[in-house]
Amino acid sequence: MTRSIIHRANTRGLSNLSWMKSFHSFSFGQYFNPIRMQFGKLRVLNDERIMPNRGFSSTPLDNMEMVTIVMNGKLLHRDSLGNHQVLTAGSVQCLTSGKGIKHSEMNDGDEELRLIHLRFLPKEKGFDPKYSFCNYDLVTVRDELLALVTPDQTCSVAQDVYVYWGNMKKDKNIVYKTHDPNNGIYLISMEGMIQMVDHVAFASDAIGAWPDGDDVEIKMMSDAKFLLIEVPPKR
Fold first, then answer.
1. 189 partner at 20 to 30 Å CA-CA among 47, 54, 170, 208?
2. What is the pLDDT of residue 113?
3. Nearest-angstrom CA–CA distance, 190 and 51
């Protein structure tokens, strides 16, 4: 039997600074909610908007798997491995911090930068740090799941997670089956209205489900864009 939860957009945490606004699906920074700590190995999901020429200076990070999806604008990434990369809309970067790395993330454009920032707990601690990125077309790929991050492609992290993008028309239905029956699914609507299990998600709402190996039907109640994240359980 599928277990499920829904996280409404207005229940997220918020960091609202003069140069950045960030919505937190799970406890992060000064936002702490003991019942919103993580979903399986998914520890952080932030929807961030950063003003031009601002961002995060060199920051240490260790033993965390980070995925950043650029929705709009230009992201300048630098890290202590020597990577220096400008990423644009549709770019996805993966960072295994492992033993430890310093990185900075800046808005390198003249418009607002919007990011989806994900962090996952690693399989093990102490991996060597690793960085990769891929570019995708999030606009013209329609009515199919587009794999952004998987364990066996260039964009991957040291955890068995799968991140997909959906850009689908109204009345499109898809059936999703997890790669491992113990894994869960966390879906966040970026635009539109989507039904999964017994819940309907509107823009910025999220639905989490543990289907125990069963197929999960996902229905588009309107034209919709969404992220679907498959993660191992917490244990």
1. 54
2. 98
3. 20
The answer to whether 98 and 63 are in contact (CB under 8 A) is: yes
Q: Per the domain annotation, does 3 fall within a domain?
A: no
Torsion angle in degrees (nearest 10) through CA of 11, 13, 14, 15: 180
Read off the CATH number of the domain in which 39 is found: 2.60.120.10
Is the CB of residue 228 less than 8 Å from the CB of residue 187?
Answer: yes
Domain that holds residue 188: 8-231
Residue 2 lies in a domain: no
Residue 206 inside a domain? The answer is yes
Q: Are 188 and 227 in contact (CB under 8 A)?
A: yes
**In Å, how far are 71, 128, 132, 157, 212 from 122, measured between CA atoms?**
25, 12, 16, 8, 22
Residue 10: strand, helix, or coil: helix
Alpha-carbon span 216 to 207, nearest angstrom: 12
Residues 113-124 have pLDDT tens digits of 999 999 999 999
| Count of domains forming the chain | 1
C-alpha–C-alpha distance, residues 163 and 187, integer Å: 10
Are 216 and 185 spatial neighbours (Cβ–Cβ below 8 Å)?
Answer: yes
This prediction has a pTM of 0.96
Residue with tokens 């499109």: 172
CB–CB of 22/15 below 8 Å? yes
3-state secondary structure of 179: coil
**Can you give the pLDDT at residue 37?**
97
Question: Residue 104: inside a domain, yes or no?
Answer: yes
